[in-house]
Specification:
Length: 364
């Protein structure tokens, strides 16, 4: 593994690495050791590891300094800005932003690097979900097929403002795309605009095997592991609109900005609007449900998935708010779900929405 340890970071005269793994850490002393080791233990000379302590106030910096990596300590500025800083410290043409509480599985770097070429804008792979102790607790997110896409995903984004993409640690981006982070000052997360824009700048390579592990706990930036929160949903809706506006600006030079869907007419916006109504104690408007269902039935989701979503949304429309909150909490739980489990949740046989962890809110 290239790079050396130092309080202000340092470089070494080595061949340019093919991939940089960037870990930014803010008060994740309990996890950052494992994240770093998951990269170092793979012994890839064509991979560079850069770790940035984003102004931690716990023991994170002490843990980071114990490893032979290029390490930097900066004032707290948020994940996006810390990642943008780290990109300037690498020469690698591809970048993987690994959350400090996640890990890569053994052999993952060899698989990833073997699939990268100059035409790839983004490579993605599922992440196994684990609890805070590393025990697997659910199916990988999301379920992906292995493919190489050369344009259909871009058309999906124009039409729906969405496509199936993993959380942060399951994505590898071509380095040149990372320049967009400088203009994404409307959010602290790193993966929003990069995921949206990548299909318009090259091929998307998707892998079916989970090459990383996504740790679920109550401090997940994405919301996975936290109780349902109306304020979080409001921020998500605002961020979604701003991301789409950013993407429209990015697409303008390609002459495609006018083809991009209105953000308030995307499945994500409509779905989160329904969730917000439920959490705010309001009745779900059938007109919004109808708009969302029309959108869903134009996607490439399986018929079974479409039917399950239809049943869920109809129940949310007709049930009393308390039952609707329980149903929403169950749908967004991190564990496995079933129709029987949903019915038990609606009857009050599972924890309330205040106790249930929220499914990842930054899935694109």
């Amino acid at each position: 593994m290239t790079g050396t340890e130092g309080e202000y970071g340092s470089t070494q005269n080595v061949p340019r690495p093919r991939l940089a793994v960037i870990i930014t850490c803010w008060n994740y002393a309990d996890y950052v050791d494992e994240a770093i080791r998951s990269v170092l233990d793979q012994n890839r000379e064509d991979c560079e590891l850069i770790v940035v302590d984003d102004g931690s106030t716990d023991a994170s910096w002490d843990r980071i300094r114990h490893h032979p990596v290029s390490a930097y300590r900066i004032e707290n500025c948020g994940q996006r800005a810390a990642c943008a800083f780290a990109v300037t410290k690498t020469r690698a043409p591809f970048v993987l932003f690994l959350d400090a509480d996640d890990v890569l599985v053994p052999g993952s770097l060899a698989t990833i690097i073997s699939k990268l070429d100059d035409s790839v804008a983004k490579l993605q792979f599922p992440l196994s979900r684990t609890d805070r102790d590393g025990v697997i607790i659910g199916d990988p997110v999301p379920r992906l097929n292995a493919f190489r896409d050369t344009g259909s995903i871009a058309r999906d984004v124009l039409r729906h403002g969405t496509y199936k993409s993993p959380p942060t640690s399951g994505n590898v981006f071509r380095r040149d795309l990372c320049a967009m982070l400088d203009d994404a000052d409307y959010e602290r997360a790193v993966d929003g605009i990069l995921i949206f824009a990548a299909p318009f700048f090259g091929d998307i390579v998707s892998l079916a095997d989970p090459l990383g592990r996504y740790r679920v706990h109550d401090r997940n930036e994405s919301g996975l592991g936290r109780a349902l929160d109306a304020q979080v949903l409001r921020r998500e809706l605002t961020r979604h609109v701003e991301r789409m506006a950013h993407l429209r600006r990015v697409l303008a030079p390609q002459g495609r900005a006018g083809k991009l869907v209105d953000p308030q007419n995307t499945p994500f916006f409509l779905e989160r609007t329904i969730y917000l109504a439920i959490l705010s104690g309001q009745r779900v408007r059938p007109t919004i449900v109808g708009r969302l269902l029309r959108k869903i039935y134009t996607t490439d989701n399986s018929l079974g998935t479409k039917c399950a979503i239809t049943i869920f949304l109809l129940l949310m429309t007709i049930l009393p708010n308390r039952a609707a909150r329980r149903g929403l909490s169950y749908r967004l739980t991190a564990g496995k779900r079933s129709l029987g489990g949903l019915l038990r949740a609606l009857l009050g046989d599972t924890p309330s929405s205040a106790e249930r962890p929220m499914q990842s809110s930054r899935k694109i």
